[in-house]
Amino acid sequence: TFSLGPRISTWDEDRKVWLQKNPQFPNYVNGKPRILLVTGSPPNPCDNAIGDHYLLKSIKNKIDYCRIHGIEIVYNMAHLDKEMAGYWAKLPLIRRLMLSHPEVEWIWWMDSDALFTDMVFEIPSFKYKDYNMWSLDLLDVWAPMGPKGPIREETGKILTANLKGRPAFEADDQSALIYLLISQKDKWMNKVFVENSFYLHGFWEGLVDRYEEMIEKYHPGLGDERWPFVTHFVGCKPHRGLVSPNIKRIRNETGTPLVNVDQFDIRHAVHQSG
Ligand code: UDP
Ligand code: MN
Q1: Which parts form a coiled-coil structure per UniProt (predicted)?
Q2: Cα end-to-end distance, the chain, whole Å
Q3: Strand extents, DSSP E, 106-236
Q4: pLDDT tens string 253-269
Q5: What is the distance in A from the centroid of ligand 1 to the CA of 89?
Q6: Taking every pair of C-alpha atoms in the chain, what is the biggest distance, in angstroms?
């Protein structure tokens, strides 16, 4: 079967030793776990030129969020493995980054077409301390479902037969992961935390029409249905509501900027009342 690389069975111990030997690369900084946000897009342009324009906005949005919160970011446009082209490209990439950055506690994949809509909210990583998944092992069983060609096609049929409402098409990484988790529940599920207390992955439908209402009633920092942390759009195929990204003045200039500096700094917005 296909594999992403040699099986690594002593990662946890090896990493612990590496961290002890390399105190200049701590996995916790100021009490916070070191996070690497990983995203990327296909090597070629989008079919639709406006799609590329949104990819640019989208990477800017991620860089802004990461700068504010001290998160490192990688943008990948290469296919590291020919067989893992397309949406499966994230698997070899994540594995490579994990192995070459043992100082990173969390690798956070984010689709190119997902945007931070709450620049203040932070992932409550302490909630997941008892869910220390064996990520390399998971990648080892997940990746063999993805090689382009007959395997991806045949696996797609299995996924469609087993996942309610899935249309018939080749295996995608996300359906494959869900299928894996439910078909091997005993092996994985006690280490899986499906987060639904905030919008890690809010879908644009049902959110975008409510943005104005949210702005009126709430404030950044909530991350949930009142102010979605992330809104996921539709790849290189944007919808009409986004075609005019004009900006407008929302307050007047002041001669005493420092009087209000805290109020206008979004990093302090958490402390404002709704
Ligand atoms: N992606 C990538 N390289 C590719 C194809 C996809 O890095 O060649 C990433 C990209 O970030 C994209 C995500 O994988 O947002 C999911 O891809 P998919 O085709 O499922 O859907 P999209 O998000 O483009 O609608
Ligand atoms: Mn997407």
Answers
A1: none
A2: 54
A3: 106-109, 114-116, 202-203, 230-232
A4: 888 888 888 877 776 65
A5: 8
A6: 68
